[in-house]
Design brief:
Number of strands: 0
Shape: globular
Distance between the termini: 19 Å
Number of helices: 9
CATH topology of the largest domain: AhpD-like
Structural class: mainly alpha
Largest sheet: none
Radius of gyration: 17 Å
Length: about 180
């Protein structure tokens, strides 16, 4: 599971409700990355609200683009846990296993369109060398027709996955049995 103490759902009614709601939505057992939050259910709730908002909320990015960002960031961070989870989600929304595998291993081989390639390049750069970001990175998005709200959404998804990758790495969250590892 992880390197820190985890509280079972039976020990905390708030936690039990959060887990049940998540399982109802995903139709899967509670993910280990959520269980690691069990000692702070309020943080778990806020984390899940943020995830729901940036991954399923309003905006012009498709579900595939959102999952693609998560996979690219997690791959750049060498986080098999998040690559596994979000590669499965990318495959689910695109029904394209070859695309999923290429994005997970090296998005540059995936033959992406101009906008998706720019999104992946930005995600990779912001993840690996955030100190090198310049205004031109944003201007390039505008030149491709993306508005500032979409650019903001891209940035937030990248930041979110960097946050989660650090939780996974820093607390030793293990990938659930049966999940793919690329």
């Amino acid at each position: 599971m992880s390197w820190i103490k985890e509280i079972s759902r039976e020990e905390n009614e708030v936690l039990k409700k959060i887990y049940e709601d998540a399982e109802k939505r995903t139709k899967e057992p509670t993910a280990n990355v959520l269980k690691v939050h069990s000692i702070r259910p309020k943080v778990l709730k806020i984390h899940m609200d943020l995830y729901e908002l940036i991954m399923f909320g309003e905006g012009k990015l498709s579900r595939a683009q959102r999952e693609m960002i998560g996979v690219v960031v997690s791959s750049a961070n060498q986080c098999p846990y998040c690559v596994g989870h979000h590669s499965e989600a990318l495959n689910h929304v695109t029904e394209n296993k070859e695309l999923m595998e290429k994005v997970a291993r090296n998005y540059l081989t995936a033959k992406l369109g101009e906008v998706d390639l720019a999104i992946c390049d930005y995600a990779n750069k912001l993840t690996k060398t955030s100190y090198k970001m310049i205004e031109t990175d944003i201007i390039n998005f505008r030149n491709l027709g993306l508005d500032d709200e979409t650019i903001f959404d891209i940035n937030q998804i990248i930041a979110y996955f960097n946050y989660v990758n650090r939780i996974v790495h820093g607390l030793g969250v293990e990938l659930e049995e049966g999940k793919i590892e690329l």
